[in-house]
Every structure is written in structure tokens, then in C-alpha cells.
Amino acid sequence: MQRFLLLCVTFAFTGPALQAQPLLVGFGESNVTPDPAKKDVWLAGFGKGRKATKIHDPLMARAVVLAHDKQKIAIVSVDVVGLFHDVAVSVRKQLPGFTYVLVSSTHNHEGPDTMGLWGENLFASGIDPDYMKALEAGIVKAIQDADKGKKEVTAVIGAANAPDLLHDGREPYVKHDELVVLRFQNSRKITTGIVVQWNCHPETLSSKNTEISADYVGYTVEHLKKKHDCPVVYLTGTVGGLMTSLRVEVKDDQGKALADGTFEKTERYGQLVGKLADKALAAAKPVKLTPFEVRTKSFFMPIDNAFYVLGFNLGVLKRDGYLWKGDPLKADPVGPKPDPKARMAIKSEVGWIKLGDLEIAAIPGEIYPELVLSKVQDPPDKGADYPDAAIEPGIYAQMKSKHRMIVGLANDEIGYIIPKRQWDAKAPFCYGRKKAQYGEENSLGPETAPILCEMFRSVAERK
What we know:
The protein is built from eight helices and 21 strands. It has 463 residues and is an alpha+beta fold. The chain has one domain (1-463). The strands form five sheets. Strands 1, 3, 4, 5, 6, 8, 9, 11 and 13 form a nine-stranded mixed sheet that branches. The protein is globular. The N and C termini lie far apart (54 Å).
């Protein structure tokens, strides 16, 4: 009798209600390539007026869905230059039942204009509204397919560094050269999917290319899919500063250097990133990815970029505008007759995702490595426009878990996020240069980094 009671008590505490819930993960993808034979496609990322002539390789929306207990998280990445916050908001409305949906882009420079900045001329947006509807539908479908295909899995995580695969296009030279990779596997240790995150502009094909392509990202995904026989999601991380594949020395199997702007270099570079992921996986360790916790914060940032303001006024940049009042948490919508002298602002968001022992920072733009790795120049260069600016709180410094990952262009594309004390738009210029370095012309303004980094700190610390 005592043994029977003991068994009953044991079952009561170890029965189905109290057993650990498994991690479920699924993958999905959707082809979102526009057809330049049917309608003009203006390629994004370099200059205006670059019309696509044909399709070289497809553009994809790739999604992973993770579920545990009653929570469900989707992360999707699209082979386009960037997506504004309203796209993420719209996608989320079409996906009820999800705890969180993260919509990101690879920042591909060989795909269609999805922001309005790269049309036929200065006064024309390059956006095709019909394509944007199809793109959004493709994103939703990729997530839905991933959700339907969820399977019980365990995970391993690995990381590897490769400074030789990155060129830093701006002083001070700071590279974020860490690749992070997750591999999911079933009970038989068969790989069911891979998520890889790397920090580089997909622009190897350069500005003269007119063929639609996913750039090196497509070749990285292809390499990993073939080797591991599973779906792959590629995530872009820290790309400001400028982290790029251009001017990176890449050689073929015979030792011949491959030129920027060629598919030969683009393919080879993508394969090298894939092999870097293989290296990381070879040393990967088991990782617990449950339970889930997600925190987000919406906020406002002023627009001090005259070109962006012009784009809003011309209707080339189409997103909701607000009136900046000095408070990142409060702003009024721009009315039908806004004051032309008023300081405009946009609304965006940051995210902090904790998957067990892994923390993920969701950053809505192209953040400089200095801000991620807490390597902002100190003391600042004498030529800096704001040498007395406080150093922003580093993104990774706010993340206390064993493993970290960053997703850039997450739920928005706000441009470059530059440390304020490294802002350098006015002479005399830093490092004795005769002209300003590239960067500020594609940033909202010098207040972007202080506001964004503080917002992330507050959400990571739950304040």
C-alpha cells in the first residue's frame, strides 16, 4: 500500500502537466523575386536609375518559427535592401497567435527598391506597390509554412571569427567579425535546419551590376543547404561602419584574385562564409533555447538629414511622420499642413529576445560595430563634430547570457547608427582627411545612436 501511494505521489509531480515542454522549430521560405520582363525594377543600394535587366538568382524570404509551451516566435529575413516599420506591423497583424514576429532584411544591394530611395531619378520612388504587396504576402507565407512544419528538436550553437572576410570602410577601424550559427536536430541527430548570422553588406556585385541577385547570401545559403541537407535562414547583423565584402581579397582554387563586381567573387565569398559556418558548427556545443522572453520598446527619433526630409516632402519616402518635441517616447503625428520649419521624427522599435541561454538584440538599422562591442573612440578625434558627447551604452554589454546574437535591420531600416562623438560632417575632418568619410549622408542624424542605444539598454534592463 505504501509503495502504491509513493507511485501515485511520484506520478503527480512528474506527470504530463509538470513535464518540461519540448522546443518545436520549423522552417519555411518563399520566392519573392520580381520579374523585370513584366515591369521596371529599380535596383537598390547604390545610385539611382539602375534598372534591372534580368534575374540571375532568386530572392527569398526565409523564416524560422520557434515554439515552446504557449509561446511562439517567428524570425524572417528577406533578400532586399530594407523594410520600413509599417511592413513589420502589417505582417504581425496577419499572424495571430504569435508572441513575437521579427521581420528583417539582408540589406541586399542587388534587389528591388523597397524603401523609395533608388528610383529612376531624384524625384521618383523606385517602389512598385504591387511588388510590395506580393513581398508582404511572401513573408507571411514563409512564416506560416515554418509554423506548419514545426518539429521537436534540440539545438547546438557555435561561433567563429574571420577578420579577413571583412573590410572596414571607415575610420576608426573596428570590425565585428564573429559569425554565429545555430543548428537544430531531431532525436536521431539529423539536422532539421540552420540559422546563421554574419555581419557584412551584401554588395559584392557592386554598382554596375544590373542582374537581380541575392548577392553572396544566396551562395552562403546554397552551400549550407547542400552540405547539411536542410533549410537555412541567413540573418544580417552589424553592417554599419562599414562592414563590407568589397575590397576583401578573395581567390579562386588556383590562387587567382577575383575582382569586385563579378559573380565569380560573389559566389566564392558566399562559399567562404558558408565554410566559416561549417567551422563554427564543428565546434558547436548544446544550447538550451527555452524558456522564451521577449521585450520590445517603440520610440521616436528626430530626422536631421536634409535629404531624408526632402524625400518625405516629395513623397519619395513614404512612412508615418511625427513632430519631434525632444522626448523619444512622445511625439504627435504630422498633420495635413505641417509647419515646414518643424523638426520631423519617425517611429521605430528595438527588441530584446531571450531564448534560454541565448540573447538576441533586434536593432532597426545599420549599427556601427563600435556601438555593439563598446569600442567607441575614446578620446575622440579632434575633428569630430561632437567630441564632448557621452559614449553610448554598448549593445552587447547589456546582454548577460552565455550566448549573444544581433539582428540588424530588424523591423525597420533607419540607416546608419553612428556614435555621436564620431559624427563628422563638418570641417575640420577627423584623421586629417580633406573631406568627410562616408556615413552621415545615410543616417537620420547625430541623435540616433544616443537615443537608440538608451532605448535598448532600458528594454534589456526592463526599465
